[in-house]
Amino acid sequence: MTFDTITETIDPHQGIVAASAVLGFAMNADVLTASLLRTLARSKPSGTFLELGTGTGLSTAWLLDGMDQHSTLISVDNDAACQAIAERFLGHDKRLTLVCQDGTEWIDANTETFDFIFADTWAGKYLQLDETLAMLKPGGLYVIDDMLPQPNWPDGHDAKAQQLVAHLEDREDIVLTKLAWSTGLIIATKKD
């Protein structure tokens, strides 16, 4: 199977998974995380959503599934080949804006605030966390995954993850819950 033989007429989730396999991209959100994202997205009617780390668009598709028709989603990734898959299967959705740019540069230039941020890459999670949380509206949700040890973690990454958790726990402007479920999630909401 090649990327060109995967048709847009199949379910976008299946198409993204198949195209990801052809590309060799193995970093898609698992179905538990994706399902939770869809459910949480439904809690923000007419919401403004931000995804840092589009990948090939699987978690993007689940967020869109949960969003109502009055919501918008900006999804940022620096990998044009991955974003091409998201564009192919999801680009028709008028609620979605795909941005192919380095996440740290995008964060630096951004002036918008959001009701929901899913940080699924270094930018907004391990890099520029404070700037990203400043973009979160009061009552908004900040979600990160892959906080339990993963087989693809490089040496020393566990210490970075522990530092991130400690930093989030020390913040006084958010309330958070850590879930030892799926790949390990943290859900935080910003205080008024």
UniProtKB/TrEMBL annotation:
Q: Is Methyltransferase there in the keyword field?
A: yes
GO molecular-function terms, A-Z: methyltransferase activity
* Keyword line: Methyltransferase, Transferase
Q: Pfam families under this entry?
A: Methyltransf_24
At the top level of its lineage, which domain of life is listed? Bacteria
The record ties this protein, via InterPro entries, to: SAM-dependent_MTases_sf
SUPFAM superfamilies documented for this protein: S-adenosyl-L-methionine-dependent methyltransferases (SSF53335)
The leader peptide range reads none
A Gene Ontology biological process term: methylation
Protein name as catalogued: Methyltransferase domain-containing protein
Tell me the organism. Fibrisoma montanum
